[in-house]
Amino acid sequence: MRASIRLSRGVIPALLPLLGGCALDWTEIEDPELVAASVTVVLTVDPVGSTVQSTDVLALLVGENFHDRVPGASVRIVGESGRTLLLEELPDSADVCATASEGPSTGTCYAASVASAHFEPLEELSLQIATADGGRLRGRSLVPNLFAPSGLTAEDGRCRVNPETGYRIDWSFVGGAWAHIAEAEFTGLRRHLWDSPMPLYLTADWMVESGLAPDMVFPLRLTEADIPWKARKAARRLETGLPWGVTARLAVAAVDRNWANWIRPGQVDIAGEVPVPSVFGDGTGMFGTAVRWTVTMESRDAEDGTGLLYCDLRVSD
Fold first, then answer.
1. Are strands 88-89 and 84-86 parallel, antiparallel or unpaired?
2. Pseudo-torsion of CA 226, 279, 134, 62, nearest 10°?
3. How far apart are alpha carbons 44 and 46 in whole angstroms?
């Protein structure tokens, strides 16, 4: 009997505290005892100093025989250095695995967070999962290298941008990166643009051309992606820059080959297997790693007296 299970795809867990941004697809698994796993390791760097500030790991395990839950599993990440992180099973009430649009995910969530560089850039990591019924899953991933935006000026992760201005943000080529993902949370939009009590959330992803230095025009890059109908009016308003008084919390991540394959277009509704899997054994799924930086930008005039440093990014053409 074929079991339909739900698996999270194409997100960076905890990119911003309130953001899930999950895109959920239905994937067909032939054996109902198999487990689907979505496991990510994210190294967060200081956007100015390029030093690792934290290591966050999130895993979502889904299995039909457990009524979509996989409790009691051992989920372990092991680095080449010998350092290991054992993930903790979270209660069903935890919202760390919640999606942005559909509420809590099915399955069982496991997580670990360390306020340091527990794993190193360009380190190969191994995923080891042992389920309560004896199942074994495994995967390997090469962590991308450190990167940070060129020329950015910020204090405590915050800076000021000029209203109604687009900025070109660029950075050096990132070794080990196959794609980039950007997410932003916008607050302070006027009600006629966005009447939800929650911040406006936009995301975009793009593949890396070999050897080229990546860049993005902010906020235009985020408004060019697939925009939900209710957000289109606000997105059009953001195309030429942030209106006065709007704050944007931006996160940009370089992701490994496994993650890039997972978000590559054309991977929807393929019965019988997960497209380009990177988790093997008694199940399937994705084991991806990423390096990301975050910054909060506030749209204000220079004479407003906020005390914020000017972000000093290059104005886009």
1. unpaired
2. 0
3. 7
Query: Which of 196, 148, 184, 155 lies closest to 18, judged by CA?
Result: 184
Tokens of 118: 């527990």
Contacts of 103 (CB under 8 A, 6+ apart): none
- Peptide bond preceding 219 in cis form (omega within 30 of 0): yes
C-beta of residue 225 within 8 angstroms of C-beta of residue 202: yes
Sequence-ordered list of residues with C-beta below 8 angstroms from that of 165, at least 6 positions apart, any chain: 240, 241, 242, 315
- State the pairing for strand pair 35-45/283-299: parallel
Tokens of 124: 């190969």
CA distances from 40 to 56, 122, 170, 259, 311 (A): 8, 15, 25, 9, 30
pTM of the model: 0.86
Residue 250 makes CB contacts below 8 A (sequence gap 6+) with 182, 183, 184, 218, 294, 295, 296, 297
3-state secondary structure of 257: helix
What is the average pLDDT score of the chain? Answer: 84
Smallest Cα–Cα separation from 87: which of 96, 74, 78, 98?
74
Extract the runs of DSSP E, i.e. beta strands, from the chain: 3-9, 23-29, 35-45, 52-62, 74-79, 84-86, 88-89, 108-114, 124-130, 136-142, 158-161, 167-170, 179-187, 200-207, 215-218, 247-255, 280-281, 283-299, 314-315
Percent of the chain with pLDDT over 90: 64
